[in-house]
Amino acid sequence: MLHKIIQFSIRQKLMVGLGVVALIAWGTYALRQLPIDAIPDITNNQVQVITQAPSLAAQETEQFITFPLETTLRNVPGVTEIRSISRFGLSVITVVFEESTPTFLARQLVTEQLKAAEQTLTAGSPQLAPVTTGLGEIYQYVIRPKEGFESRYSATDLRTVQDWLVKRQLAGVPGVVDISSLGGYLKEYEVSINPERLHGMNTTLTEVVDALTANNANTGGSYIEKGPEAFFIRGEGMVKTPDEIGQIVVKNVGPTPILVRDVAQVGLGHAVRYGAMTRNGRGEVVGGIVLMLKGASSEKTIEGIKERIAEVQKSLPPGLVIEPFLDRKVLIDKAIHTVAKNLLEGGLIVMSVLLLLLGNWRAGLVVASVIPLCMLFALGMMHVFGVSANLMSLGAIDFGLLVDGAVIIVESMIFSIVHTKATRSQSMDEIALDSASRLMRSALFGQLIILIVYVPILSLTGIEGKMFRPMALTVGFAIVGAMLLCVTYVPMMAATLLRKDIREEGTLADRIMKALYRVYAPLLTGALRWRKTILVTSVVLLIGAVGIFSTMGGEFIPNLDEGDMAISLTLKPGSSLRQTIETTQRMETILKNGFPEVKDVISKIGTAEIPTDPMPIEAADVMVLLKEPGEWTSAETKEELIQKMERALSVLPGLTYEFTQPIQLRFNELMTGVKSDIAVKIYGEDLGVLFAKANQAAAKLKTIQGVADLKVEQISGLPQMLVSYNRARLAQYGVSVAGLNRILKAAFAGETAGVVFEGEKRFDLVVRLDSTYRQDIDNIRQLYVDLPNGQQVPLDQLATIRYENAPMQISRDNARRRITIGINVRGRDVESLVGEMKRVLDKDVPLPAGYSYTYGGQFENLVKAKGRLAVAVPLALVMIALLLFFTFGSFGQALLIFSAIPLSAIGGILALWLRGMPFSISAGVGFIALFGIAVLNGIVLISYFNQLEDEGVTDVLERVKEGTAVRFRPVIMTAAVASMGFLPMALSNSAGAEVQKPLATVVIGGLVSATLLTLVVLPVLYSLVASRSKRTEQLAHEQPRPTVAHSIIGLLILSLGSLTAHAQPITVERAIEQGLRQNGGLQATALEVKVGQSLQKTAWDIPRTTVDYQRGQIQSFPTDHSLTVMQSMAMPSVYSAQKRLYQAQLGVAERQVVVSRTELVRQIRLAFYQLRVDYERVHLLQAQDSLYRRAAHAAAVRYRTGTTNQLESVTAETRQRDILNRLARLQTDISVGRQTLAILLQQGEPVIIDTTGSVKAGLPVLPPTLEANPYLAVLRQQVETTRRQADLEKQRFWPDIRAGYLSQSIEKRGGFGVYQVGLSLPLFTAPIRARLDVARLRGQIADRQLNYQQHRLQGELSIREQQYAQSLSTLAYYENSALPQANLILRTAERSYVSGDIEYLEFVQSTTQAWLIREQYLEAIAQYNQSLIEQEALAGFALGTSY
Fold first, then answer.
1. What percent of the chain is modeled with pLDDT above 70?
2. Residue 1254: which residues within 8 A CB-CB, separation 6 or more?
């Protein structure tokens, strides 16, 4: 097949060229459509449930909201983890699903459970967070006034512009799921109650709220019709201004109304804030965070956002500007630039190496052109399979791997042109076809190994799967493209561009290779002389590498340098929002003014409008935007810069902060619930115990080297003003808890009494105490409470009001409370650090019963990933080993080539160690790729060693030296292009290179060691194994061993057995039943019967009825009308004759079905019993081979003792080869027979027959006659059909009958009717007579055909009877006489030969006759079966038996 494809490609150059053009167009289109991002989105599949309840403390939030929702959500199918945070007024539950669960299905399942749980909640309404991920915060901006406009816009104005102008217009951008606002003041219409005036007028807070609610609404009154118009009725009662609100009547005291303005100040205010935003230490700003839809393209979404912002900017009020401070496009451009730069440099290096080592620019051009075409094919497949273009998917492509197949083909052509004289008379097309066809399997096999080793990477799941699966898919796509190009494009281009005048001698490539080989040849000679020393040295190096690997430590994935920094800041518990704002401004001032590297500093404090990141007001994320590293002056590395920043910020007391990066911060939080690299989680029930143990553990962990930023989760210490109701007093005054709670909430938190519209904008109308009366605990004590009797008492008469610390936050994982110690790692690998932390905590900070430690964050991901790699890497090794075994058919040679894997691991480990890199998942994937590449050189060497052996080079050392000399250039070229392709990746220092470096370092280091050691160690191993195999082969003649023939017999039986294990063997009866039921030809014949049955209904085919109507001046001037109805038909005898004809034709179709069924049964029986005889021949050959093997063993013993010569051994080997040849033919016959039977049975796969039944077809049921022959029955029915046709033609001489009725009016008078009857006479009868003559002639033809076939079939039946009698007699001879004699001959001959009574030649002559008798017996059975089946088919017995 490959040969035909290559031949087609070379001959049809234009079609291949058009295909290449189409590939370029497809790849270019896919590149423009691919979603582009910096890194793969590794966020797990999660749904966040957010519930806001401003009146609930952390304990109540957990008790009333979080716990009931968690309990309900644990029943959702597919959930793997549930995390939650409960704090004052806010509950955030993160539900993590299996990766296979579709996002919107997960949200639907969660929504259904939330609807069921809402009835059990006492406060709050759960909502789902937007469909976004850790990469969702793609664009962040601030809205600020320009210089000179600062005093014109307040923070409230800026927030209103953000919410009602900017946010609404950005919401329509494709890919944007939501915009979260932060900072400023949320505008409200505030009714600020003066409690003294309220008390003085004997009015309650509740009455004010109810009055506002009842006096702020519009309505409609349908419409009134007035004349031709309808007037619709509308009642307008919505308040529009603070004055209107102040004029609302609270109640009437006598004739005097008490208005809202009498007890309160009405004006513009703002909601209670839980977050803020500051910038560069210059005060507060208003900003927005654009959240991208999960799965959308970051690049295209950001482009849409920027276009929309440019439009929005034009509609902003004068003096305002939208200014982005965090644009993901910057990081994307840096990462893609890194990828493009590495790919371009790698491609150029590979092309240069190819041009240098191939020594011909045309050949180099052909091979190098494969690179961009493979990339375009990969891009097209990425678009089809939805793989995004990012640092990982495109960053691991090694062009050296892609051109391996092309190098093999082109180099083979060059070798043929230079060294083979036969090519001088061939055209370039013929040379290309010969070279490509000869080496295509080797080329594709090498690429197939590379492709297969990437398959286990596809088994990775979780974060590492999302990170590295795109890489494996992209590399796989590129390699598949290279394989397709190797069988189409490369042969065509090589035949077109290469010339016959190629010179190899004296070229630069030739001189380089000769120089390298002059260094290598003495090294190989010495290695073959000191083979044991070389092997021991290799083992020592491997042991040393394993030792180094055990001390390297590990990390999950190297952190991608995003270019910016993020500081997670926490103040002491209970810090006010104002204090946090002041602190962040001081930090911003220090960083902005003290470090010229800093471009911008923005602090996001507390919780944004969409609280997907639920921080308290004493926490902030400080974004430090840095200039390009080339512009840095105070530090050279980011680590050094962080250390200096830490020292500069140390002047601010009471702060806890962690340095990280924006995306990394978001990823860590969303995936593990913690913003740090490592999360030490302590689980338990009591919050006090958790907090105490966490602080003890933190004190111990601070002393460990590598612990950079350490932060204990603040779960306690929140200062509260606690109001504890005195139930006895409540009962005494008749006050309910619900009433007190409403007053307390409305007075201080505020209660919404409606909305006020300003055009499309809407703002809450909120009632709360004036800020003057919301200052300290005394304001709570002096709050007046309404009594049922109309009186009022201070709240402190009904409750105890005091200060008390309370939990600030309650975190839960899978329904268990926990506290987290967040640790960032600096200057050390994660794995060794966590190991030391475990030892310290287990020894120095033991936990009480029911409490436990876990270690999350990057370490948790590392443990999971290493567990999966522990399966993926051995799987890759097993797949490589199996491919090698199937290719070479030898475990020994497969193990020889497999030795390249540990040899390559030496270089990979040493390269990591020398560069100071710990083991990471990126490095692990590099090892998987390395193992596939490393075996290629071994394949090149071993395959050529075997070729030399087949050509007669028996001396092992000579074979090794000649093989390494010829294959030295391909080995060097393969290793050079593969390793050089990764070189830019390994040396790159630009954005994103951190993830690629370990992978590239492993591959390059491994290939260096693998190439050096393969050229030395592999020949040494081969020489040892080949020499030992040769000695073993010499000794093997002393023992009987299975021959090739016997192996084939075993394989044939095993294959039949394995097929039998999967499919039920079929008997001849079942085969016939299945064939009659499924055969398509028989089904088609059966449909003809249905056609005949349908034709019966057309026998009475009466012509259509004619209806004529006329209107006009029929008789005279007045208008009249007439109606005529006319029907004609043939004589009834015509229709009867026609029906008899159709019945006769139906009889022909029915008898034709019998013919088809009989023929099908005959063919099935013949094929079945032929297979049955062939299987018996297999068993016969098996027994024959077994006997000759025993004889050959005896011949070998006699030869060694000197009692005979070598002729016996040679004769035995000849007999065995003859058996092998016969078995091969027999195997082909069986395969063809099974396929033939499958075609008859309409079965997709070859049939497996039952070999336990009799090999003979049985005995005839009745004496054979032709009375039931189905073919003669068809002919008799055809004679009857011609007679019916003649009868029908005779009936056509009769006239047709016509009858009708005419009704008309004459001069407008109706009622005139006429009946008509007539005949249509056939006056011109010549055509009828001619058709009658034709029918009679056809009847004569059918009669003569019937007579002829009767005589022919009678003669054939007689012949079959004689053949059957002869075969029956022959069978009787063999069964009664010949077979017993043959068995006696075999037993006697073997016994006499073993005892030495006869020579081997006499033994062969005796047994040959016996085996011939057995074979002739099987041939007689075959003839018997055929004659019986043919005889029964002629007699029509086939369908009359039990089949």
1. 89
2. none
